[in-house]
Amino acid sequence: MRPLTDEESEAVFAKLAHYIGDNVQLLVDRSDGEYCFRLHKERIYYCSEFLLKKASCIAREPLLSFGTCLGKFTKSKKFHLHITALDYLGPYSKWRVWLKPNAEQQFLYGNNVLKSGIARMTEGTPAHQGVVVFSMNDTPLGFGVTAKGTADCKRADPTAIVLLHQADLGEYLRNESFLT
Question: What is the DSSP code (8-state) at residue 164?
């Protein structure tokens, strides 16, 4: 495990800012202790300094994980968020979408969301913006990218795709055999 380089930090913070905006600062400056980002086996982990000191006593190869895995770098050095980042994206998200109960299941199966499945959307959401997806009882279900902004969505056909799927809680079940 090692600290992030400048390029890696920039990629991680840019991706996080796409979903939570300026609230990225709240992830680093927390009142309950010091928190940091570390790279281990091409994955980015978010953990407390206390846990980092404990994990540093373990050799690199047998160490599987520590803290919360926010995402990973691909071979082309692009950063992709994992669904495990949802616990940190949900409370700090600036742009939110709430789904109708009949659209929740389709989203959790990994499908994009149509306009007919949207119950509410944060006012002023632009197109191609990262949003956190919630159920009607404010349970975070996943995250995605808007295909249409709020203004375009109001004029769109009910069968138009409004939200492009990125990750959802159903991935835990669909990818159970690949998880370590």
Answer: E
Q: What is the full DSSP assignment across 5-24?
A: PHHHHHHHHHHHHHHHGGGH
89 phi, psi to nearest 5 deg:
-80, -40
Sign of the C-alpha dihedral computed for residues 164, 130, 100 and 119 taken in this order = negative
Q: Is 77 left (phi over 0), alpha (psi -120 to 50) or beta?
A: left
Q: What is the pLDDT of residues 33-48, one digit of tens each?
A: 888 898 888 899 998 8
In angstroms, rounded to a whole number, what is the distance separating the alpha carbons of residues 16 and 93?
A: 10
Instruction: Give the DSSP H/E element, type plus range, for residue 50.
Output: helix 49-55
pLDDT digits (tens, 9 = 90+) for 105-138: 999 999 999 999 999 999 999 999 999 999 999 9
**CA-to-CA distance for 141 and 55, rounded, in angstroms?**
30
Planar angle of CA 66, 95, 11, nearest 5 degrees: 45
